[in-house]
Amino acid sequence: MPGKMTLDQILASLFPAGHSVGVTEGLIIGEGPFGGGRLVVVGIDGDTPLGVEGALVLSRAVLDAIKAGESAGALAPILVAVDSDSQRMSRRDELLGLYECLAHLAKTLLLADRLGHPTVGLIYGHSAAGAFIATALATRVLAALPGAHPSVMDLPSVARVTKLPLDRLEAMAASTPVFAPGLDNMVATGAVHAVLDPTQPLDAQLSALIADLPAGDIRDRLGRERGGRPVAQAIAERVVRQARGG
Amino acid sequence: MAAADAVSWYEASARQRVAAFLDADSFEEFVGPTERAMSPHLPLFELPRAFDDGIVVGRGRLDGRPVLVAAQEGRFMGGAFGEVHGAKLVGLLRAALDVKPSAVLILFDTGGVRLQEANAGETAIAEAMRAIAEVRAAGIPVIGLIGGRAGAYGGGGLIAGTCARLAVSEGGRISVSGPEVIETNRGAEEFDSRDRALVWRTMGGKHRRLTGGADAYVADTVAAFREAALDLIGRAPAFDRATLEAEQARLEARIARFGDCRDGAEIWARLGVNDPDAVPALTDAAFLETAAGVPEASHDAR
Question: ipTM for the complex?
């Protein structure tokens, strides 16, 4: 396994002519020239947990990109780069309505997408649970770099909750992508659209992704084709069919 | 069937809620239990399956108007999102774009992602949130109703926050990390999950209503949820930049004003509630009067 790319390496590869992307308290915000226009970057670096303040800093940046698009008439693509912890787990964050702040961040990304901004997630390290859902998973497509390790919950915690021995879970994880942490498994479920090649320039790879964005949400189709979610697409389609009939 | 005003939402099953909530005999289920759409994964864990995978989806009428409805069953696997469970909700939301109902109603009752199918559940939650954005953008209100025993936790809390309007009862809880999760990760000094009063003050229905985290507070009856849903359908905010700019300002103001508070009661005091320590014991009627006096509780910024 190659070592994972750092954010600096990723930004250098995305923006050979330079950029203004910075990291403050683990939050990534900025932009740079890209394909004749510019690329807006938001995200989370350094395995940082996402709390109420961080979510609102990122959503502010996304809303600013939408506003800039309205006045400039050019809709900049938005890259959501993530190497995060899970949501910040605290009494204070929940007291202040973390569910609203995380959902708000996701909604700003979903609105940007609807308005025509290409939105692409890029997981280059860890991410988990609510932080993952509110950021990289709220884009049109999610790309990954080798070495990324998304998870919902680590296997020792799964062992605690399911009361199954860890060695048995590890054996099950090898054959069943639906519950085990790791990049390969999130590729198999369709959540990760593509894995990029770190040895090739990222700007061209991102341009190619943006040029070929799927029209709708095809994650369940990918999950069926790749075997990680064997039945989700068929079930959703059956519901749609029955709702249309009668 | 018992009259809707006599049925406790908290105690009812998902099917009982749907039957009593919609106009009589108007419910038609999609991919119902006779179709045996069960989890393909639970047998690996030697766990029992349910013929509906813990969620009921279909169409019906609400005061004569056509609606789509999804109801989670908190008594099966804590109402958690597995592959089939999540796909049924996603399919229902996608169907709304086709059949254009007066509203989509989500009756939440969930602990979040089902760990035995974690990757499928997490991806389905992301799909559901995108579908909600599309349904709302098409002008169809998506309304969340929260009063079940499992609450709306984890990814369920994020889906709730994506809805246009939320109604909650006293027993409803909305949160991302549950008390047990916080205690496991941070210790009992951070959150003693056995302190039920603390749970209610931090994430319970009254706290969410007073702070504007939910748009209606209702008694724990099916009739009260029905009445609230009818009201909320009629005043759902648009899904556009103006709404999200307003939500940004609303949430920033909340954190600026209450970011140093340690307890719900401190926040209620700053909101101008006369006797904050008495809020948990207030009757539903008295609480509604209190909430009506808190301007921050009601807004179009969601």
Answer: 0.98
Round to whole Å and give the CA distance between B37 and B105: 22
Evaluated on CA atoms B104, B107, B113, B117, the torsion sign reads negative
CATH fold, domain A7-145+196-213, is: 2-enoyl-CoA Hydratase; Chain A, domain 1 (3.90.226)
Range of the domain at B70: 4-174+214-238
The DSSP-derived string for A27-89 is EEEEEEEETTEEEEEEEEEEEEEE-HHHHHHHHHHHHHHHHHHHHHS----EEEEEEEEEE--
Distance between CA atoms of residues B123 and A191, nearest Å: 6
Q: Do B120 and A178 touch (CB under 8 A)?
A: yes
Considering only CA atoms, give the Rg of chain B.
Answer: 19
Task: Give A109-161 pLDDT, tens digit per residue.
Answer: 999 999 999 999 999 999 999 999 999 999 999 999 999 999 887 787 778 77
Give A245 or A24, the one with higher predicted confidence: A24
Describe the crossing of helices A52-72 and B241-258 by its angle, rounded to 10 degrees: 150
Q: Among residues A79, A65, A90, which one has the least CA distance to residue A34?
A: A79
In angstroms, rounded to a whole number, what is the distance separating the alpha carbons of residues B302 and B300?
6
The DSSP secondary structure of A131-197, one letter per residue, reads HHHHTGGGSSEEEE-TT-EEESS-HHHHHHHHT--HHHHHHHHHH-TTTS-SHHHHHHTTSS-EE--
Cα angle A233-A134-B105, degrees, rounded to a multiple of 5: 60
> Which of A66, A35, A26, A20 minimizes the C-alpha distance to A202?
A35
Q: Which two tokens stand for residue A211?
A: 């040029």
Query: B90 contacts in A (CB within 8 Å)?
Result: 220, 232, 236
Compute the distance between CA of residue B180 and CA of residue B199 in angstroms, rounded to an integer.
Answer: 10
Q: Where are the domains of chain A?
A: 7-145+196-213
Asked if A139 is an interface residue toward chain B (Cβ–Cβ < 8 A), one would say no
The number of beta carbons lying within 10 Å of the beta carbon of residue A166 is 12
The residue type found at B264 is: G
Convert the pLDDT of each residue in B27-70 to its tens digit.
999 999 999 999 999 999 899 999 999 999 999 999 999 999 99
Set of chain A residues whose Cβ sits within 8 Å of the Cβ of B57: 239
Question: Are A107 and B244 inside 8 Å of each other by CB?
Answer: yes
CATH number at residue B166: 3.90.226.10
pTM of the model: 0.97
Q: How many CB pairs under 8 A join A and B?
A: 268
CB B296 within 8 A of CB B214: no
